[in-house]
TrEMBL record:
The lineage of its organism: Bacteria, Bacillati, Actinomycetota, Actinomycetes, Micrococcales. The chain crosses the membrane at residues 48-70, 82-103, 123-150, 156-181, 193-211, 266-284. InterPro entries: ABC2_TM (IPR013525), ABC2_TM_bact-type (IPR047817). This is Transport permease protein. Keywords: Cell inner membrane, Cell membrane, Membrane, Transmembrane, Transmembrane helix, Transport. It comes from Serinibacter salmoneus.
Length: 295
């Protein structure tokens, strides 16, 4: 029977087996929840610490970087309170790294499901976003407590900056994760490329040093500075600094010249990341037709 001879599809329904992009996961909350639970259960199976590992990795990173950058290179004097400055950047970069890294591997790791049943393939990378958020929330709570201890008090613009930073990171990581995850099915070298990207991500954003140091090194108005500031991760980290570090470091003056345009750049970065998400979804949808054969 040809497609023209098939019966008409009732309103509100669609023909099964047709890839429709991220929109296809709407109404698939139950399947998404099952994938998230499966991922968490497999990850912490036979683990003594379980979810507590979400504290261990950022904790070790923080201790190492704090002593190397804060004590040995005396960044704690240049950026007080450096502990909040450092940890706020680590938390955000870890969120990006976990979403992108796991989303890239998500389709390959779920190859058995891809070959057995049809379900929207986008569920695999999207589920990794929720898994990353499960780990991100405890770290964010630690950051909030630490910020309060050093004198941080929430303000409206700071809350908006934090939300905007999280949206930028999640949108960018998911967009790239969809694209890399789709290509990774055919070329497993992509996993190694993504690992390299994640390895240098923390060094190419103002987590261990200040943006002012970059400005002094490259010079105001230089192309290198413009490229550095165009990095969405740079903008997201600066937004998180605006939310948690800046009010504690400058309680009397929250409108520093370095922060006046960070919100505008944040909105532009979110739009750019949304475009990356759309392009990544389209590439994923196109390549997903061959996933079962290649896996």
């Amino acid at each position: 029977m040809t497609e023209r001879q098939l019966p008409a599809i009732p309103p509100g329904m669609h023909r099964p087996g047709i890839a429709r992009g991220l929109v296809s996961i709407t109404g698939q909350r139950y399947l998404l929840e099952l994938l998230v639970r499966k991922e968490l259960r497999v990850r912490y199976q036979a683990s003594f610490l379980g979810l507590a590992w979400s504290y261990v990795k950022p904790g070790v990173q923080f201790v190492v970087f704090y002593f190397v950058m804060g004590q040995f290179l005396q960044m704690d004097r240049a950026l007080p309170p450096f502990a909040v400055y450092l940890f706020s950047g680590i938390v955000l970069i870890n969120l990006f790294s976990e979403v992108l890294g796991n989303a890239t591997r998500s389709v390959v790791q779920n190859g058995a499901l891809v070959n057995k049943i049809f379900l929207p393939r986008q569920l695999f990378p999207v589920s990794m976003v929720w898994v990353a958020l499960v780990h991100f929330v405890p770290q964010l709570l630690v950051l909030l407590v630490g910020s309060l201890i050093v004198g941080w008090r929430p303000d409206v613009m700071g809350i908006v900056a934090a939300v905007l930073a999280i949206l930028i990171v999640l949108t960018l990581a998911l967009g790239l994760g969809l694209a890399f995850g789709a290509v990774n099915v055919a070329y497993r070298d992509i996993e190694n490329i993504v690992d390299l990207i994640l390895m240098v991500a923390i060094w190419f954003s103002p987590v261990l040093y200040s943006l002012d140091m970059v400005r002094q090194t490259f010079g105001e108005g230089s192309i290198m500075l413009a490229l550095y500031q165009a990095n969405p991760l740079t903008i997201a980290v600066e937004l998180f600094h605006r939310a948690f570090w800046y009010p504690a470091a400058n309680p009397a003056d929250r409108a520093d010249a370095l922060m006046t345009n960070v919100m505008d750049r944040g909105v532009i970065a979110l739009v750019v990341c949304a475009i990356v998400l759309v392009l990544g979804d389209r590439l994923f949808t196109r390549l997903s037709r061959n996933f079962a054969q290649e896996l």
